Every structure is written in C-alpha cells, then in structure tokens.
Fold:
Amino acid sequence: MPASPIRKLVPYAEAAKKRGIKVYHLNIGQPDIETPEACLNAVRHSDFKVLEYSHSAGNESYRKKLTEYYSKNNIHVNADQIIITTGGSEAILFGFMACLDPGDEVIIPQPFYANYNGFATAAGVSVKPISSSIETGFALPPIKDFELAISEKTKAIVICNPNNPTGYLYSAEEMQVLKQLILKHDLFLFADEAYREFCYDGEFTSAMHLEGVEDHVVLMDTISKRYSACGGRIGAFVTKNKDLLDAAMKFAQARLSPPSFAQILGEAAVDLPDDYFNKTKAQYRERRDLIVSRLNAMPGVFCPNPGGAFYAMAKLPIDDSDKFCQWLLESFSYKGQTVMLAPATGFYSTVGLGKNEVRLAYVINTDAINAAMDCLEKALEEYPGKIIT
Amino acid sequence: MPASPIRKLVPYAEAAKKRGIKVYHLNIGQPDIETPEACLNAVRHSDFKVLEYSHSAGNESYRKKLTEYYSKNNIHVNADQIIITTGGSEAILFGFMACLDPGDEVIIPQPFYANYNGFATAAGVSVKPISSSIETGFALPPIKDFELAISEKTKAIVICNPNNPTGYLYSAEEMQVLKQLILKHDLFLFADEAYREFCYDGEFTSAMHLEGVEDHVVLMDTISKRYSACGGRIGAFVTKNKDLLDAAMKFAQARLSPPSFAQILGEAAVDLPDDYFNKTKAQYRERRDLIVSRLNAMPGVFCPNPGGAFYAMAKLPIDDSDKFCQWLLESFSYKGQTVMLAPATGFYSTVGLGKNEVRLAYVINTDAINAAMDCLEKALEEYPGKIIT
Structure:
C-alpha cells in the first residue's frame, strides 16, 4: 500500500504549525466554501431517536431524490442503479473490487488521483499508466498510446473528468474517442466526476451521456466537493449494468451501510436552488485566474490554464518536488508563513515523472492565494535545489 | 465475495412488508434502544460552517477523549495508538489488509461474524475455522484444535468477545489460553469487542488486558452497539504495535477520513454518566432471559444461555435454516405477522454446519419478542421441512 502523497507531508505541516508558522493549504482539495446552510440544517433539525443503520445501498428516499439530481444533469438512472457509498473513495474501491479480478489491469492517464493506486493495490489490480503532458495542458493521450497499453488483461479505463490533479476538462470529442475504445476492446469505463459542476471553459460531457455503452460505464460520484461536504463521506456508485450492481452490493452489505447523518445532508442538497453553483463557480474561476497568472509570472514556472475542478498543475524550476514540498514546511518561511503543496510525483505511476511539478488546490480565498503565491515566489528564490534555466 | 447472510434475505422481507405483513427483525443487530440524547444533541447543536475532512486517523480531540473511555475500561492507550474508522467494519478491514499479506491464514472459532469472511476475501486472506459447539454453549474450542489448525501461513487469531453470533463471553482463563497461543506461535490476536459493555454473567476480559503481548494485540472497536449509533459508522483500530499503526494509516489516508458528524457524537458519548450502561444492560438481560426461556420451551428447540452481547443461537428442528428463514418471509404468517432470523449457515465457514441453527438478535422490546416467539412457535409447527424428533 503506497502512502498518500496528499497526506504524507501532514506531520511536517503539524510541526511547522507548532513552531508558530502559518501554513497555506494548497495541498488538499478541502474547499473553504461554506457547506450550504440548508444542508447542515437538515441534519441539525433531524428528529429521529435511533441512529440506525441505513439500507446497505443507502436510504431509498435519498436514492430516489438523487435520480432528480442526475436527471437535471441529463443522466437518467433509477434508484436501483445507485449505491450510496462512504465517500467517492468507496465508490472507487467498489469499482476496483467488485468489477475486476485480482491480476486485471486498468489504464489510467497519468498524472492521476493518487488514491486510485491505493485502491488498485487493495484490489490486486495493476495500473497501467499512459502519460498526458503538461505541455498540452494534460489533454487525453493519443489513441495509439491507449492501443499500445491495452493487453488481454486490460478490463477498464479510469478517467477523472474534470480532472484531479490537472484540472483538465475532457471535450465531447475526447469522450467519443473513449467510447470507441471501450466498445472496440470490451472494456469498462470508470468515470470519476466529483467535479462535474466546476467547469469554467467548455461543456461537460458525462460518461453517462455516451450512448450505446450503458453496460460499460460506471460512475464514481461524491457530494464532497459539490456541496463542500467532504467530512460527510457520502458518494455514489452508479451504473446501468445489473451484474456490476449485484457484485458491488455484496461489498456494500459487508460494510453494512453508509453514514446516516450525511445522507440526510445529501438528500437536502438536491433541493438547493438551481443557481446554487453559480456563485461557487464564479469564486473558483476567480481563484483559478489569479493562481494561474501568479504562477506564470514567476521565473521558470509554467502552469497551463485548467478548464475545470479546482486544481492546477505547475512546472517549477526545482530538482525534486518531494524535497521541495518538505523543505517548504521544514526549512522555509516568509513573514512567518509558508505554503503546503502536493508533489506531483505521487500522481504519476511511472517513477521519475512529476519531479518538477506540483499540484495546487485553489480552495482558499484570493487574499490567501496571493499570500501563498508570495511565499512560493520567495521560496523558489531561496530553495537550495532550484534549477536555473 | 460472499453475500452477507444477515442482509441477503432483505428483498424477501421487503416483499413481505409490501404484502402488508409485519416483520419482527431478529436478523440484524440493530438495537431499538434510543441513541443517548446528549450524543444526538452534540451533533444537532454543532455550529461549524464547513463540513471538512477530519484527520485521516480521526479528530485529535476525539482520539484524546477516547483514551479516557478506554482508561475507565482498564485499557491504557494514548491518542496516537487509535485510528478512528468508518464503523467497526473498517477496523476489521484495516486489520486484515494492513496487518496481513495475501495468502496468509487467520484462525477464527466458528460460528463467527459473517462479514469477517467478506473482509478476508477482500484482503486475499484465508480463514481457517475451528469449531465451537452449541452443546458447550460455544465455549472456546480446545487448544489442540488451534494447534492442529496453525500452519506456517497462520498469522492471526480473530475473536469476537462477547461473541457475535453466539453471545458467548470468554472467561479470563480462556483469554490466557489465547495469550499463550499467540506468544508460542508469534501470532496477532485481533479482538472485536463491539459488545464490551453487554456482559450479563461473569467478568469481561479485554485482549488489551493481556500482559506481555501488547505488540500482538489489535482491538477492533465500534460505537455502533455501545451507544445504539450504528448509522454513525464510527469505530476504532487500536494497537500498541507501531508498525501495524503505520500500515493501517496508509489505508486510512487512502480513504481520506472517517465521517465527521458521528465523530462529534462519539466524543460526546465519552462524557455520558458512568451509570449510562446499567439501564441498557438491564433491558438486554430481561430480553435475553425471555427469548432464551421462550425458545427452550418450544419442542425440539435448544438455546444455550448467552453470557453477553445481544445474540442467541438456537438449534431448531428443521431441515435447512436458509430455506426456513426464507419460508418465514415468503410463505408464512401468523396473525399477519412473521419473524426474520439469520440462518446460522452464513456464520460457519465449513459448508454443511449450522443447517439447523439460527441467530436471533434480541434488539426489540419484550412485547415484540413475545409476538416474534409466538410466530416462531407456530412456524415450527407448520414448516414443511420440520424434523420430528
């Protein structure tokens, strides 16, 4: 089991804070956006007497309600095609464990959400990465790279759209390329669409929008980012494939039920006004514009403009992103402050890639982003391992 | 992945209810006891603005508080030796996944909590059952049975104390036998102590009370039954073994964090008055006495008196407990009512065992237990597969 690249530096951050240093957290996708009050109130005003197990697939009332949410997103499923999971994490775990056998291979464009590796390891599944590049803004790799990677053991392609860690938003054309690939090779398409609502340039195409591949597609979803409800630990495993649902239900039953409190929150969230996301999206867009322009203004730094989610990947003039991110916490401060970033190495499956890249989650306000960028700019001047180009 | 024997009959129960039949649920350990109001209020009166991820090991404040709870139970651990999990289920999963390698074997006295099988399967670990018997009230199997089952692949013994599904409470002497075994063969002892507070006859001995085997013992704990908070999905993985903690933390980080709401509930629970469990225990004891006497009064039925937890195992004069439990839901009713039981076959790893045994969870009030026993008594008269002794 690999250590989480997003969380492994936590002890260094804790030590820095104990030394009195303010740490700007750009390392983890924990939004500062307030959880909608109506959602929190639904929990706070609940009046049950016994905090019971829910159905293993989640409360029926919640699953029915969720079909309304999906319908608004042009995703037409019924309540029996949804299994409520303990966070998006568990939806991914169910995907790997219930849909694949140990020894199977999955293809994932890298860099990718690091915990896919952890869940693949837990399921005995091998990840075959194919590389996207910062130079093209992390667009879908060319079809020939997929074809070269596909073997008889390949059972699925995993995508995250809009992408974590790159922020890349797959185009409708790229989604069609994926559709042809999964049809041709009879593969599953696992689609992590945690950031569905956060698209700033271009239209979002869900894997569930692809016609004629309904039995191939599994949606791995979560309310964590959508409603700033990460601590609720509520996600969903959604598919029209009955066999996969049956297999996933066995895993769902083994862990008894998803958390009850946050199912109430999730159910209430479906009734938020339709314009709820507009304000949040505007905030994230402003932050994106700021962080990308601040980064690209630093000597030797390159950051492509991400089309969605709330992450940016940046190439820095440094020797080793793991060392640099640790040094930021252990040995650096500027005006009593420093910044915590996620080294990109943890998002690449191929050893050696990402050594001069970091991921930044723009989940703090613009003042904080500016302060964090001031720290980063100063740090890049002082860092002993800087590369002068 | 095996289907959960506790939940696989759920569709039949749902169908019976749709036909207007009242179903008494003795099949699942979902207590009807009210969750302590102070605990629910701690959640309802919380005033945070953002439902954030917690620390992967759980909130530090909760872990610190939990050390007080454990200390009252003569279990002395510090906050760093506790990882808060998503239910006891995840504590068990972490035990199998983080402490063992695929191909390793664990020894579990059967019948055992069926989901151990599921988690072992998920981890690629083999379960080697050794049998306890209803005739001895499901006491710990003789030491020679353990010795015969131990191979070079054996890495751990798993116990649930007080036991689910049997209700058996291991004596201090039996715990010493286990201590000698794990020392002699250098094994881990995984102890599921979900029902610690519910002991009716005799003293409880925790695996954490055993001296000289601190590095061998892993406690798999949960607040689900203790505070009737099953839907909270909060448990704990507790050990003094630093290597196991480090390994489990990788899994904890991969799933990001345990649910936030119910950690608040769990923290508040530690401050409940010391006599909180007295009333609950008295209720369960009354129910146990009732259900055991009702069962033993039925012709051909035998139910040993369980010393703890809230389960009883009964031997019934039937051909096949799976068929019988399904028949109760599909084809039987008495005064518009029926009873849902858990077939014992799912609690045995050895095929063929438990065919004339069922597990009953006495988690409903005494009136309901009487009504459920009326149904069962009638059903045993009518069941086409009854065995006349």
